[in-house]
Amino acid sequence: MLAEDLVQSDIGDNITLSANAEFNWIDISQDERNSIISKYRADLFDDNTVYKFKKKDFKLIFKDFIKDPDYKRHYMLVSNNVHETNDENLCGFYKGKLLVSYAIQYKKDLKTVYYYDVLGNLRYVDTFSDNYPNFPYTSKQYRVTGKLISAIYFISHDLQYMYRNNETFRGIWYKDKMYNSKGKQTLTRTNW
Questions:
Q1: Nearest CA-CA partner of 125 in 48, 64, 166
Q2: Beta strands in 46-167 (DSSP E)
Q3: Which of 14, 34, 109, 129 shows the smallest number of beta carbons within 10 Å?
Q4: How many C-beta atoms surround the C-beta of residue 133 within 10 A?
Q5: Per-residue pLDDT, 62
Q6: Helices of type H across 62-168
Q7: What pLDDT score was predicted for residue 23?
Q8: pLDDT, tens only, 71-111
Q9: Where are the domains of the chain?
């Protein structure tokens, strides 16, 4: 959670808002954390949430992305630390120094990210809410089988609330660290 102090200055006809943000998840009470967790859970998991697509429906929706026809090129680009081309954003996932998968976000459709194994087989899909990339927005990740894996509420670039497919709170990311519902740090990420 961020505590924000808004400051408004009035200069002629222009009004300027600025914010100072302070991360206070570890300092607030457990009741306050539980309340925040419940709020974002309710925002993420509504009556329109699809927990499991029929496999054939999922494959029909994403039929053009089940296999990456450019997987060799994407593998080489990601292996050489290329994160962006004219048409796509790229991200690699490694075990040690070994590239094990990569993600593609096509610039013509920024609301979807496709995750592939190194042979170009689709493994996961992230779908973003309509207001992406403007904060706040949400994301839902599905396996290629059509099953919901996780849902994330993005407050800002630095702050996200993550839930499992069964609506269980996984943690709050603040910059490169994840904290659980008790305020204890559980993970660190390097791709922030």
A1: 64
A2: 88-95, 98-106, 112-117, 122-128, 137-143, 148-154, 159-164
A3: 14
A4: 10
A5: 95
A6: 71-79
A7: 86
A8: 999 999 999 989 999 999 999 988 888 999 999 999 999 99
A9: 47-188
Do 182 and 169 form a contact (C-beta atoms < 8 A)?
Answer: no
Contact in structure between 6 and 19 (CB atoms under 8 Å): yes
Pairing of strands 148-154, 137-143: antiparallel
- State the average pLDDT for the chain: 88
Token output for 94: 């490694």
List own/partner pairs for 36-44 with CB under 8 A and 24 or more apart.
Answer: 36/1, 36/161, 37/161, 37/169, 37/181, 40/153, 40/161, 40/163, 41/163, 41/167, 41/169, 43/138, 43/153, 44/138, 44/140, 44/151, 44/152, 44/153, 44/163, 44/167
Say how far apart CA 80 and CA 84 lie, in whole Å: 11
Whether the pLDDT of residue 190 is over 70: the answer is no
Let me know: does 138 contact 126? Beta carbons within 8 Å.
no
